[in-house]
Amino acid sequence: MSAAAPRAGQASPFERPSARELQRQRTRARLFEAALAEFAVTGFDGASVAEIARKAGVSRPSFYFHFPTKEHVLLELQWHKELEMVARLEGHATLRALLEALPDAIVDVYASIEGPGVARDMVMIYARSPEYLPLAEQPFPLVRLLASRFAEGARRGELRAGLEPVQATFLCLTGVFGYLIAGLPGGTQREDLRAAVGLYLA
Q: Where are the domains positioned within the chain?
């Protein structure tokens, strides 16, 4: 019986990280939590890298070893928040069901981010980030989930005529994140987002 080849990037269950690697992971986690705590108090722009490092018990250069910029902390936060959204959404097997659930997931998850304007800053950084890559190289889980559902929806006839799945994925996310960046006043976020994502359904 031949063993299945491991997927790219998949760690062996028998691999044991070294003490140095474990220490690196713990330091990075402390810096991440200290940065989020600082953002919650001062906002992203007002946060001091020196203060973040001090609260994490490391030097300022150590922060830059783990996170090249403050923006990279928010990119990692976006990744974590997308994991939360995907956990809520992946049980919705059809494109229609997923798009109906997407606005609540987005609003609820982003509302959980503490700090003045931090959620908006995160979305702005994410939207202009070089990490916003083609689907085949995409590290962000919400993008991959939507791409999968749009492709399946196109085969089922759920996708609006004239749209390609990849095109629809990026147009949908661009519209959603553009709306969040605009920060329009009022309590109609969920309804507005439902109307926006509904445009992609047949």
A: 19-68, 71-198
**Positive or negative torsion for Cα 83, 63, 49, 71:** negative
pLDDT, one tens digit per residue, over 144-198 is 999 999 999 999 999 999 999 999 998 999 999 999 998 776 779 999 999 999 9
- Mean pLDDT, the chain, rounded, equals 89
- Which of 118, 123, 111 shows the shortest CA–CA distance to 43? 118
Residue 61 neighbours by CB under 8 Å, 6+ apart? none
Going by C-alpha positions, the residue among 2, 8, 65, 66 that lies closest to residue 33 is 66
Please tell me the CATH superfamily of domain 19-68, with its number.
Homeodomain-like (1.10.10.60)
The angle, 0 to 180 degrees and rounded to 10, between the axes of the packed helices 70-89 and 141-156 is 40
Listed residue (76, 114, 109, 104) closest to 189, CA to CA: 104
pTM reported for the whole predicted model:
0.86
